[in-house]
Design goal:
The chain is built from 21 helices and 11 strands. The protein is α/β, with parallel strands linked by helices. The chain has 2 domains: 277 residues, 3-Layer(aba) Sandwich (Rossmann fold); 204 residues, N-(1-d-carboxylethyl)-l-norvaline Dehydrogenase, domain 2 (Orthogonal Bundle), CATH 1.10.1040. A 5-stranded parallel sheet has the order 5-2-1-6-7, with helices on both faces. Strand 3 and strand 4 form a beta hairpin. The N and C termini lie far apart (62 Å). The relative contact order is 0.10. The chain binds D-mannonic acid. D-mannonic acid binds next to helix 10 and helix 14.
């Protein structure tokens, strides 16, 4: 006889989960948060902080998660297990599986438009939070306003009642919440993410109704946050972990590292969960934390990703265990990134560097470089170019930062040094690939093709002779092979 297949996770079975839930006590809350972008990151980060805050201090902060890409299979998988899923934390101490309970409902846009707007107009919903990645903001990177050429934005301006874009959805909802607006909480890796979202949303609203735009700018809170946890994509290995730990089947578990951090600007006029009870830092100004994380973590993550795509390291732990790569990233953080940061007294930047290197070395996480390499056109400016501009302003060298940007340029050719081809996933993929291909591997031609892309390189920076020559040197070294370049720049 074949053993019967394990049952799917359900809320009735919660009492059986023992130490695999945060606490045996649990009262089903009502929905108080709508989260746009219900990817792995949110489910391993904010959703857990929120569950812990409810366990410690109560409140109706159940989460309605929304996938914006019409991903009905994700919605259906999570709804079939009543919003439950396993968080599989992997570190040096082994593996810990926790069943998360704060997610109560999952919607897929545009299919669930009516239910979404019922939630967004429900006065019990006090926060709309987002992890939609950089491109979800539909910003014109040159001005910070909403990008009027974006197809979703154009659709939403023509059909404001059935929006598809993030600014369109928020404006349609806020227009109906003038008596009691919700707080909008960006949790993406953008500098000044609250202010960046406010500008995109208000500029969209002004296109429809200037007075509405002014009201949003004045009355709606957009606190900034710094979020941090390394959360790779799901593989079968996490599904197996949940069955092993609980004997239940989970179609949508999330892997993550043990570390997590959340720094939040404390500006929630409509109220918020007691996230501080779960270890979140509520502060007046998030900027120094955001910049430290974006430049130290995300900047070196992207550096590791592009160099690894060329050199053939598949995961971050494999890349950082190469002694030259380790030295390169260590020196880049110490000599080129840390001196650009003004850090709060509570942050020891060199200890932060060491902690990051240890996190990257986590062998259990298997964070794929290809995942981090996605969307370079959106990630390069906040992660690397701001740091380069700061170095230029200080009159200091930035060879390793330039190497990272050069590695991204070489990556756009779509193949590793050994000739193995990979796909470029980026909103500007076809244009960037065509530009990179037109250069036929010539450093000067590559720079001439890519530096004028204004969505990425601001004119003043692109014209800086120091940047051009550092990129040129890096491209020439990379052309002889990324492994050699990593050794040459390790310092
Ligand atoms: C990564 C981030 O995928 C990426 O681009 O750099 O998602 C990173 O893992 C998180 O920001 C860590 O908090």
């Amino acid at each position: 006889m074949t053993p019967s297949a394990p049952l799917l996770l359900t809320r009735h079975a919660l009492p059986e989960f023992g130490t695999h839930v945060l606490s045996a006590q649990w009262r089903e809350p009502r929905i108080g948060i709508v989260h746009l972008g219900i990817g792995n990151f949110h489910r391993a980060h904010q959703a857990l902080y929120t569950e812990e805050a409810m366990l410690a201090a109560g409140g109706d902060w159940g989460i309605c998660g929304v996938t914006l890409q019409g991903d009905v299979s994700k919605r259906d998988a999570l709804m079939a297990q009543q919003g439950l899923y396993g968080v599989v934390e992997r570190g040096a101490q082994g593996e810990k599986v926790t069943i998360a309970r704060a997610l109560l409902e999952v919607l897929a846009m545009p299919h669930d438009h009516e239910i979404l707007f019922a939630r967004l107009t429900d006065p019990l919903v006090k926060i709309v939070s987002l992890t939609v990645t950089e491109k979800g903001y539909c910003r014109d990177s040159r001005t910070g306003d909403v990008d009027l050429e974006d197809t979703l934005v154009a659709h939403d301006l023509a059909h404001p009642e059935t929006p598809r874009s993030v600014p369109g959805i928020l404006v349609a909802a806020l227009r109906r919440r003038r008596a009691n607006p919700f707080t909008v909480l960006s949790c993406d890796n953008l500098a000044h993410n609250g202010a960046a979202l406010r500008q995109a949303v208000c500029s969209f609203a002004r296109q429809l109704d200037p007075e509405l735009g002014d009201w949003i700018a004045k009355e709606v809170a957009f606190p900034s946050t710094m979020v941090d946890r390394i959360v790779p994509a799901t593989t079968d290995s996490e599904r197996e972990s949940v069955v092993r730990a609980l004997g239940y089947r989970d179609a949508a578990p999330v892997p993550c590292e043990p570390f997590r951090q959340w720094v939040i600007e404390d500006h929630f006029p409509a109220g918020r969960p007691a996230w501080e009870t779960a270890g979140a830092q509520l502060v007046d100004d998030v900027t120094p934390f955001e910049l430290a994380k974006l430049r130290m973590l995300n900047g070196t993550h992207s550096t590791l990703a592009y160099l690894s795509m060329l050199a053939g390291f598949e995961t971050i732990d494999a890349a950082i265990s190469d002694p030259d790569m380790h030295r390169l990233i260590y020196t880049m953080m110490t000599d080129e990134i840390a001196p650009t940061l003004t850090v709060p007294g509570s942050l020891d930047v060199l200890a932060y560097r060491d902690a990051l290197l240890a996190r990257y070395a986590n062998p259990a996480l298997k964070h794929r470089c290809a995942q981090i390499a996605m969307d370079g056109s959106q990630k390069i400016p906040p992660r690397l170019l701001g740091t380069i501009a700061a170095r230029i302003a200080q009159g200091q060298p930035f060879a390793r930062l330039a190497l990272a940007v050069a590695a991204w340029m070489m990556f756009l050719r779509g193949h590793a040094d050994d000739g193995i081809r990979f796909e470029i996933k980026d909103p500007l993929a076809s244009r960037l690939q065509a530009l990179a291909a037109s250069a036929h591997g010539e450093p000067d031609a590559l720079l001439a093709a890519l530096l004028p892309v204004r969505e990425i390189f601001p004119a003043e920076l692109a014209a800086h002779p120091g940047l051009r020559s550092a990129l040129h040197d890096a491209l020439q070294t990379l052309a002889k092979g990324a492994r050699g370049a990593i050794a040459a720049y390790a310092g």
